[in-house]
Amino acid sequence: MSDVALSVLDLAPVVHGATAAQALQESVLLAQLAERLGYTRVWYAEHHNMPGIASSAPPVLIAHIAARTDRIRVGSGGVMLPNHSSLIVAEQFGMLETLHPGRIDLGLGRAPGTDGPTAAALRRTSDPFGLEDDFPDQLTELRGFLQGSLPDGHPYRGVRAVPQPAHEPQIWLLGSSGFSAQLAGQLGLPFSFAHHFMAENTEPAVRLYRSSFQASETLAAPRVSLGVNVVAAEDDARAEYLAAPANLQFLRLRQGRPGRLPTPEEAASHPYSAAERAFLEQRRASQIVGGPDTVRRGIEELLARTNANELVITTMVHDGEDRRRSYELVAEAMDLAPREVAPPAAA
Q1: Is 126 or 308 the better-scoring residue by pLDDT?
Q2: Alpha carbons 243 and 66: distance in angstroms, whole number
Q3: How many CB atoms are closer than 10 A to CB 144?
Q4: How far apart (Å, rounded) are the C-alpha atoms in residues 162 and 210?
Q5: Which domain holds residue 183?
Q6: Cα of 268 vs its chain's centroid, Å
Q7: What pLDDT was estimated at residue 347?
Q8: How far is C-alpha 9 from the geometric centre of its chain's CA atoms?
C-alpha cells in the first residue's frame, strides 16, 4: 500500500480529567511520532464552543507544531473560511508558509464548525449560514491575496497580504456533500471528503469530484483524500473498548450536550437506550476499529471502493499512549516507511 499516503487529523481532544494544555501537549507528541513513522501530513480542525476539542485556532496550533517538527507537512483540516476575512487567512497562512516553506497546507471548509449561536458570534451576523453562499467568491479572493494577483478593478486590488509567501500553501477543499466536491473539481484543486462523519455521501461526492475535474496549474489529475475514523489496538476487543468513548461523546454532541472525551469505563457502563444504540451502530459501520489485521482489511476495503489517494486518519481515544500506539499499529499494518528526522525540539 506504499502508493497510498497516510496522514493524521488531530482534533486535540480534551479528555475527562485533563486540561486543554495537556491536550495540546499530546498533539505535539503525536505529530512528532507521525513524522517519525512516515505519515505525510498532520491537520488540525477548526471547531468552536466544544469543551472536548482544543483545536479552535488552527493557525496558532499549526505554528506551534511546525516549529516542533522537521519535515512533516502541517496544516488545517480545515479552516472554516466564512468565519474569517480572506485577508486574515491569507496573512496567517502566508506567514506560516514563509516561516516553514513547503510544509504548510491550507484545507478550507464552508461550514461554521459549531452551533448556530456560536456561528452568529463568530460571523457577527443574524444570518451566519448565509455567508456560506459566498464561499466561491471568498476562495477566489483568498487566492488572489496569497498570490498577489487580484485583478484590475477589484475593490481590494491595492491591498497586499503581508508577508507574501514565495509559494502558495497547498490548498485543499474539504467537504461532506457535493458542493465542495464539484467546486474543487472545477478549480483543479485536491479534495478531502469527511468520510468520518458523513460516510453515506463518500462515494457520490468522490465520483462528482472526479467527473467535474479540470486540470489546473495546481493539479494535473484528481487527488482525493478521505477523513476516516480508525482505532487500532493489539486485538479487536481492546480496540472496540478504546473506541467507545468517542462514540459516546459524539452522541452527546448530537443531543446538544457537548463535553470532554469520557473514559472507556464510563462509555462501557453508560445506559444506552435502544435509539442511542441504533444511532451508534450506524456511526460505527463507517469506522475502522480492531487489531492490525482487521484494520488493514478495513482500510483496503475502503480504498477498493473509493480509489482514494490518501487517508487522513483521526483517532479519538482517552489515553494519549493508546492513541499514539494506534497510529503505530496502523503504520505497521500498512507498511508505512519510517522517516529519519532531526531530534524533536522541546515542546
Answers
A1: 308
A2: 28
A3: 19
A4: 35
A5: 5-231+290-333
A6: 27
A7: 45
A8: 4
| Structural domain contains residue 285 | no
pLDDT of residue 124 exceeding 50: yes
C-alpha cell belonging to residue 224: 482525493
Torsion of CA 187, 167, 62, 314, to 10 degrees: 40
In CATH, what number is assigned to the domain containing residue 179?
3.20.20.30
DSSP 13: B
Question: 138 in helix, strand or coil?
Answer: helix
Domain membership of residue 278 (yes or no) is no
Grid coordinates in use for 249? 461523546
Position with higher pLDDT, 112 vs 224: 224
Residue 10 belongs to some domain of the structure: yes
Task: Count the Cβ atoms, other than its own, within 10 Å of residue 102.
Answer: 11
Q: List phi, psi (to 5°) of 15.
A: -95, 160
What is the domain count for the chain? 1
Residue labelled with grid coordinates 478504546: 242
3-state secondary structure of 250: helix
**Per-residue pLDDT tens over the stretch 59-113:** 999 999 999 999 999 999 999 999 999 999 999 999 999 999 999 999 999 987 7
Residues 27, 61: contact at Cβ < 8 Å? yes
Residue 340, domain member (yes or no): no
Beta bridge partners of 9: 43
Q: How far is CA 110 from CA 46, 133, 191, 279, 333, in A?
A: 11, 9, 13, 26, 34
Contact yes or no for 227/192 (Cβ under 8 A):
yes
pTM assigned to the model: 0.93
- Residue pair 69/59 in contact (Cβ under 8 Å)? The answer is no
**pLDDT at residue number 167:** 94
Instruction: Give the residue among 73, 193, 194, 86 at the shortest CA–CA distance from 147.
Output: 86
114: nearest Cα among 58, 173, 51, 62:
51
